[in-house]
Design a protein that fits this description.
Elements lengths: L1 E3 L5 E3 L3 E2 L7 H13 L3 E3 L7 H10 L8 E6 L1 H5 L3 H12 L6 E4 L6 H13 L6 E4 L3 H8 L8 E5 L7 H9 L3 E5 L15 H10 L3 H11 L3 E2 L6 H8 L8 H8 L17
Parallel strand pairs: 3-4, 4-5, 5-6, 6-7, 7-8, 8-9, 9-10
Antiparallel strand pairs: 1-2
The chain binds NADPH dihydro-nicotinamide-adenine-dinucleotide phosphate.
Length: about 270
């Protein structure tokens, strides 16, 4: 299953996230396991310090590079120091690829407007297939829209049943910006928080699915791309096995009603890094 970005490029609806997947074997293995399980989308970032391992995992998988949708992100220090082009080149070298499918401004750090212009230049020079943002609120999006040549193809933001972020998602989707949910399972809290929620467990039991599959399916049916992280092969497989069932509109509403605006990540308007 794929979604189409505002420049016609397709993005697979389920990708593997690799934040906190350890450098070295753990990341190489996770990427290989995911590709074997059918994933064709990997989400990394310069600051995850595992771009080289992501590149290695892709190479070892023996799948054509062009069949993998690869995302990486411009870190805040490079936004602040107006270093977009060099940072992109460094990411390409670490990943061992000629081009990235999606390059995102990781956070709206000071200088993000200039970073967006620099991203547009990379795009115009055909050095990147699509450009977007992450952790951008409505006011950040409106700010760059004033001078922008292009609308971001993607906004990657926190979203899960306890922090649905629905207003921002609706705003983005209305503007043709594809939303990718990060921490789609509630991040590290998923160790026993959202995945044990009685409403989620009840729906999972009824449909003979796991709690994670129910939550990921809820995202897909809202038109949202997901990038669940796992280092375990059986969970990587489980998180991708969500295309052959459907949630009723009643169950969708029940899950949406769990929202309590409870974030697990940093505040995009007040982050200290
Ligand atoms: P997730 O919501 O993907 O949750 C990951 C946690 O859930 C891990 O502890 C994982 O453990 C566990 N898990 C995964 N699958 C299952 C399952 N089926 N059943 C039970 N537990 C499971 O959180 P993340 O915060 O990692 O977000 C996903 C990705 O989003 C990141 O890897 C990164 O790529 C991106 N991200 C982007 C941010 C941004 O600022 N743009 C911020 C945060 C994340 P285990 O590995 O042991 O399976």
């Amino acid at each position: 299953m794929e979604l189409t970005l505002n420049n016609g490029i397709k993005i697979p609806a389920v990708g593997l996230g690799v934040w906190q997947t350890a450098k070295g074997e753990e990341t190489v293995n996770a990427v290989q396991m995911a590709i074997k399980a059918g994933y064709r989308h990997i989400d990394t970032a310069m600051i995850y310090r595992n771009e080289a391992e992501v590149g290695e995992g892709i190479k070892l998988s023996n799948i054509d590079r062009d069949d993998i949708f690869l995302t990486t992100k411009l870190w805040n220090d490079d936004v602040r120091s107006r270093n977009t082009e060099n940072a992109y080149q460094t990411s390409l070298e670490l990943l061992g690829v000629d081009i990235v499918d999606l390059y995102l401004i990781h956070w709206a750090a000071e200088g993000y407007q200039e970073a967006w212009s620099a991203m547009e230049k990379l795009y115009d020079a055909k050095k990147v297939r699509a450009i977007g943002v992450s952790n951008f609120q409505i006011h950040h999006l409106e700010d760059i829209a004033k001078d922008a040549k292009y609308t971001p193809a993607v906004n990657q933001i926190e979203s899960h049943p306890y922090f649905s972020n629905q207003e921002l998602i609706d705003y983005c989707q209305d503007k043709g910006i594809v939303v990718t949910a990060y921490s789609p399972l509630g991040g590290r809290a998923s160790d026993g928080n959202i995945l044990a929620d009685p409403t989620i467990v009840e729906i999972a039991t009824k449909l003979d699915r796991t709690a994670a599959q129910i939550i990921l399916r809820w995202h897909l049916q809202r038109g949202v791309v997901v990038i669940p992280k796992s280092k375990s092969e059986h969970r990587i497989i489980e998180n991708f096995d969500i295309f052959n069932f459907e949630l009723s509109s009643e169950d969708m509403q029940k899950i949406s009603a769990l929202n309590k605006n409870q974030k697990v990540g940093a505040d995009p308007d007040n982050f200290g890094f």
